[in-house]
Structures are given as structure tokens and as C-alpha cells.
Amino acid sequence: MAYYPVFIKLDGETALVVGGGRVAQRKIETLLEYGASVRIVSKELTGKLKQFIESGDIRHVGEKFESRHLDGAFMVIAATDDKKLNREISEAARKRGLLINAVDQPPDCNFIVPSIVKKGDLTIAISTSGKSPALAKKLREKMDGQFGSEYRTFLTLMGRLRKEVLKMGLPHNENGRIFKEIVDSDVLEALKRNDWDGVKSTLGRILPGDVVIPYDLLMV
After folding, report:
1. 118, β-bridge pairs
2. Which residue, 110, 102, 115, is CA-closest to 19?
3. pLDDT reported for residue 31
4. How, if at all, do strands 37-41 and 58-62 pair?
5. Which of 8, 216, 217, 26 is nearest to 123 (CA)?
6. In the CATH scheme, what is the code of domain 1-113?
7. Averaging pLDDT over each range in 2-16, 52-66, 186-200, which range is the top one?
8. Which fold does the domain 115-147 belong to in CATH?
């Protein structure tokens, strides 16, 4: 089966996680990182999950799954060690048209979670369509070493520069030329070497004179 790759905005959306073990904990930690409002259903809970509940980071809404727990949910993750229960959760979620991931049960999912390499605003998702999570993990570890912290700084810088350039009202093709020239330049390598003078020199050569270069970012 082929999966359509997509990035979903979870900020403020409700995610229901059924299960309270280490797998559920990892899923919840990632959901919180991306701004989801998390509800959990489980009788047994890891120590970390108990802490999340006590601090108000997540809501414990029951010990045993019931269909009412799906009310208001945007996404559902079935992470119990009971495959039959995970399938029942999946069927109930699908009837409501919800996004559902049943851990390690691809036939019971309508989305799967990729391995992720994240450097600031750079996110690289790796998937083997559920055929070899071990390979996806290996590739993630390899790529994590290939993309350093300079990408975080570069994208923060580009976000600021993009706003400044677009404010000038230049033709679309001119904007594209400027952004491509920056990406194709040695700015990334200069950031990797902490060569701030080199970054400033290159940007000064490429950018129109009216663009304000955010030098404060170059000293982070």
C-alpha cells in the first residue's frame, strides 16, 4: 500500500491515546511537542504519564475505552498491548472519519507515523510504508548526523529575510532568483563554520540594498 505523505497541524487539536505504557508515553511526548491537546485512556500508567496528568499537560479521561472517548477527537492512537482492542478502537474511529493509528497494526491504521529528523523548522520524515521500521530508524540516525544545527539557524534567517524581500514588491521571478541564490550560496557552510563575516558578505552581495539583514541572528 502506498501512503500519501502529508504534514498535519496539531496545534490546539485533540488527540486521544489509548494505552499507558512506554509506547503510549513516546507517542504522547511527540504529540505534546507539536501542540496537541492530549487525552489518555488507560488503567495502568507509566511514572512519566502520571506526572503529565498531575501537571495538567494531559487529561486522564478513563481507565477503559468507550466510544464516547472519541467525542471531539481529531486524531486517535491505539497503543495498547491488546491487538483486538486496538482493532476495535480503529473501527470505532473510522466510523467517525477520524485519523487513527494502531501501533504495529498497519491494516488498522489510516495513517502511519514516520521516523523524523528535526532541526528547528527543518523536518524530514522517513517512511518505509510500515515494511521496515528498523530501516526507517537507521536512516533517521544517519541523516540526523548529516544535518547539523546550521540548518536551524539558516531557516530562522530565511524566514526573516523572506518577509523583508516580499515587502519590497519585486516581481515573483526576481524573488525566486534571490531565494535560490541564497540557498545555492555558501551561507550554510559559513554558518557551519561559525563564519559570521562570510555570511554577512554573501548576503550583502545577493540581497537588494533595501533589505534589512537580521544580524542579531548571525551571532546566536
Report:
1. 123
2. 102
3. 97
4. parallel
5. 8
6. 3.40.50.720
7. 52-66
8. Double Stranded RNA Binding Domain (3.30.160)
